[in-house]
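Entry 14. Ran structure prediction on the chain below.
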Amino acid sequence: MEAKIEQFSRKWLSLLLNGVIGLAALAGVVTMQSIGQLGGMPVGVQGQKPLSAMSAASFKQDAQQEALRLKMLKTFPSFGFDNLIADWTFLKFLQYFGDDEARNVTGYNLSEDYFDIVTRRDPRWADIYLFLSTAVSFYQGNPETAVKLIERGTNALSRQNHPKAWIVWRTKGLDELLLLGDIPDSIRSHEMAAEWVENTPDGPKLAPIFRATAEYLRRDPDSVPVRFTAWSTVYYQTTDKLVRQRAKQALVKLGAVVRKDKDGKESFILPPRK
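Output, structure tokens:
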């Protein structure tokens, strides 16, 4: 379960780790995407065992009950145990996120509720923001909400008291670039990440990388290929119809051409930029 989350998070964290975007790598990713391989096996792959109607109904009922529990937890008095509530909620999220069979039926639409609670109760928990981005931005397809939740961390943390606080700015910058296409804010977030990582053990290695990323975006703010790759991953990863429609709209807005095979499965091609 945790390995699944960590693997996906690291995949996107590594996209800009070297400060520049490899065009050759992007071309390879687009080629893979065009044949339905991006983001793992597409939804509805051959050989996948169908769920019984009873199992599907059970998963939906469980999701409805969990939604009610989360709604109650948002208003539940903490009695001074905010950190404990945040820890418990995050553990519940890991169970929720790691249940692939259930998520194939109900989607990931409760992710933002989990992290709304976690970031309200313990906004200084720097390590959870990358999980937040993975779940809310990519799997749920809602980067706007993810960035708002991440900003609770940037507002609550400080580089003086939290050595890992730079992770929050870095995560915010990736969401702004990859899914929102907000280049000015992404530049600022990477610059803040560079400032905050400086004077930490990771500073000598990471500060130059983050500054190089910001400078690269200033020179070449066209992030269309990167956003195309990111939204393609969202599209192929989700089984939620609303999230998939959101991803498709974003891809078409970026200029992608929609193609359908004989079975009606859609793929997206990004024509060469003029």
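The first helix runs from residue 2 to 13. Will compare against last week's run tomorrow.
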